[in-house]
Amino acid sequence: MIVSTKVLFEQAYKKYAVGAYNINNAEQVMALFRGNINSKAPFILQLSKGARSYTDKRLLEAMIRAADEIFPEAIFAVHLDHGDEENCYDCIDSGFYSSVMIDASGEEFEENIAITKRVVDRAHEKGVAVEAELGKLGGVEEHVSVSEADAKLTDPEQVEEFVKRTGCDSLACAIGTSHGAYKFSGSQGLHFEVIEKIAELLPGFPLVMHGSSSVPQDEVERINAAGGELKGAKGVDEDEIHKAGKMGVTKVNIDTDGRLVWCRVHREHFRDHPEVFDLRPAGKVFMGEYAKYIEHKNEVLGSAGRLEEVRAAVK
User: Fold this and answer.
1) 212 labelled ligand-binding
2) Residue 25 labelled as part of a binding site
3) Residue 72: phi, psi to the nearest 5?
4) Is 157 exposed, middle or buried (0-12, 13-18, 19+ CB in 10 A)?
5) What is the secondary structure of 154-194 as a DSSP string?
6) How do residues 28-79 score in pLDDT, each as one tens digit?
7) Which domains does the chain carry?
8) Which of 42, 162, 178, 210 has a Cα at 20 to 30 A from 135?
9) Is there a binding annotation on residue 93?
């Protein structure tokens, strides 16, 4: 069942965070649904600008519709991740998406407000929720590329004005994470003081944490042992993710970890079975491994076992 992100956020706020997982192909779709059903968790399925053009947006959307039929017990939202205005309007007008993210964080404050407000006005006419971003995450992920020098934390003093003037429904905040597999070096972590201050200024308002993959070190080690070269890859500590979910961070975006699982499975499979040229055996292994990862991550987020609560709320 596809529902509004607003419903999911209302149920989750300061109790747990909803996992927002990016998908690109059929194997990821099937594993994502299986993992969330197994852990009895509501979730958000995210399509990025890159994912929608990787094959064709209609193909991905058709797979999601099919999965909704295959797994009728699932409760989830469909979200556009890191959209520009054109992408947002296309998704809004399609009638398929629960919510869209307009990422104008690279613009100056006033221009960010102006762009976000245009998207919000168009989206709300169609009953679509809007996620905006204030502050700038570093790192690289698809078309998003921000140097460490240009990254900046969200200024809590700007959030009230931004939300009031744009009318956005949730806010992605820069609180120390970054995109990609190289988020941290040394002992850096989340800026909980920023989360706390924003939550005080916006009580009850859902906050979003991008760049939240934990980059499991066992995955990195296994990838490197199978011929990979991921040196120094490090993500967000899972204890910190759990803590953020209790502070008002209601949506946690996870993309890189799914790619790491895919990379590890395929590198190991073709290393160990050099005679194999069929893509399906490795695909089956991946689906099982990614489903297990989703189950684990939902436990970390606190969303595991919450499905029936949400079902009762949407009836």
Assistant:
1) yes
2) no
3) -65, -20
4) exposed
5) --HHHHHHHHHHH--SEEEE-SS-EESSB--STT----HHH
6) 999 999 999 999 999 999 999 999 999 999 999 999 999 999 999 999 999 9
7) 5-314 (3.20.20.70)
8) 42
9) no
Contact partners, residue 142, CB within 8 Å, separation at least 6: 48, 49, 50, 82
Residue 180, token pair as written in the block: 């990609």
The pair of three-digit structure tokens given for residue 189, joined into one six-digit string: 């972590």
User: Could you tell me which of 52, 222, 13, 245 has the C-alpha nearest to residue 142?
Assistant: 52
Residue 200: the pLDDT is: 95
146 — phi, psi (to 5°)?
-135, 125
Alpha-carbon distance of 21 to 294, in angstroms, equals 9
- Does the annotation place 68 within a ligand binding site? no
In this predicted model, what pLDDT tens digit does every residue of 11-36 receive, in sequence order?
Answer: 999 999 999 999 999 999 999 999 99
272: which 2 tokens? 């160990």
User: Residue 11 has what pLDDT?
Assistant: 96
177 annotated among ligand-binding-site residues: no
For residues 208 and 20, give the distance between their C-alpha atoms in angstroms, rounded to a whole number. Answer: 10
Q: How many CA atoms lie within 13 A of 60 on its CB side?
A: 24
The active-site residue, picked from 81, 237, 239, 278, is 81
- 201: left (phi > 0), else alpha (psi -120 to 50), else beta? alpha
